[in-house]
Design goal:
11 strands, 5-stranded parallel beta sheet, ATP binding, globular, ATP hydrolysis activity, ATPase_AAA-3, alpha/beta
């Protein structure tokens, strides 16, 4: 019983700090509460997030603010078509000492940090994008045959322009699967846009302040994994993920007719973590079916794809996920 009380006390303490972190972030990133919640969820889970939206919606501002508020050492890389893998990972240079001897010295790239902002990631070539694959999964990079560990914790927050824009390359499925969540950043409503104008065009702007340290964030990530998840929530997650696979015998007929490829076990792992994070961000001690429904689209939409016929008909993947999530959880889902 004492162990349960300790766990409850620790969760409540982290929830208070998260509330303070959200308040600090939203003073600079106005009005996009869901975007802030999803990004914080990714950090709490120790994962990476992909923010998708048109230029000028504040994605870069959000990531910079998060770096300050969460107490992380951050670097920013602007992805361009001529960017090379060595520009991200680093490289070895040949140096000549005073006595004439020569040796190689490794110059670390910007990836050696705790929070890497990959700005407009889909403007770089697939070869350069692939430089992040090992780092995002294993938290190390291999250069010149040597494994080099990255910062602790290590997160990638990438921004992406819509694929319809000029000069973009689609991210390969293997890399998309490494992002814990995909976050759609939409245009703000009129009242929010008015608040943004007033907050950002004056003489002074709100400053973010550190709420967490890197060590406190790591402790929160470990605590998150101790949060209990009910058996019914586990079954709901399994039902949802397996229903999105066209090869699964339990998949609905509509999935088999419209989905080309479905989510793998990593999607179920991501849901298990993110529903806990959402519960923690909302001041609760355990996740609910509503958390599963809320996290279904951010976790699954980049891990499955519509087939050609469905795309030609103009079918919506988000609407399909909402329908399946509603059936798996037994509650109404938002499309």
């Amino acid at each position: 019983m004492a162990e349960v009380d300790d766990l409850v006390g620790e969760i409540e303490a982290v929830e208070e700090k998260l509330a303070a972190a959200k308040a600090s972030i939203t003073r600079r990133f106005v009005g996009q509460e869901q975007v802030v919640d999803l990004t914080l969820s990714a950090l709490l889970c120790g994962g990476h997030a992909l923010l998708i939206g048109l230029p000028g919606l504040g994605k870069t501002r959000l990531v910079e603010t998060l770096s300050t508020v969460m107490g992380l050492n951050g670097n920013r890389v602007q992805f361009t078509p001529d960017l090379m893998p060595a520009d991200i990972l680093g490289s070895e240079v040949l140096e000549t000492a005073a006595d004439g001897t020569r040796s190689f010295r490794f110059l670390p790239g910007p990836i050696f940090c705790q929070l890497l902002m990959a700005d407009e990631i889909n403007r770089a070539s697939p070869r350069t994008q692939s430089a992040l694959l090992q780092a995002m999964q294993e938290k190390v990079v291999t250069v010149a045959g040597e494994n080099r560990p990255l910062g602790q914790p290590f997160h990638v927050l990438a921004t992406q322009n819509p694929l319809e824009q000029e000069g973009t390359y689609p991210l390969p499925e293997a890399q998309l699967d490494r992002f814990l969540v995909k976050i759609d950043v939409q245009y703000p409503d009129r009242d929010t846009e008015r608040a943004i104008l007033l907050a950002t065009t004056g003489v002074a702007e709100e400053d973010a302040h550190a709420v967490f340290t890197a060590e406190e964030l790591i402790a929160a990530q470990k605590l998150l994994r101790r949060m209990p998840v009910g058996e019914s929530i586990v079954e709901t997650i399994l039902d949802l993920v397996r229903a999105c696979r066209p090869e699964d015998p339990t998949a609905p007929e509509r999935v088999r007719e419209t989905v080309s490829w479905g989510p793998g076990p990593r999607a179920a792992q991501a849901l298990m973590l993110t529903v806990r994070a959402r519960a923690m961000l909302h001041g609760r001690l355990a996740p609910s079916p509503e958390d599963v429904v809320a996290m279904a689209q951010p976790v699954l939409s980049h891990r499955m794809g519509l087939n050609f016929a469905a795309r030609a008909r103009g079918d919506s993947l988000n609407a399909l996920i909402a329908e399946i999530a509603s059936g798996a959880s037994g509650i109404e889902a938002a499309a």
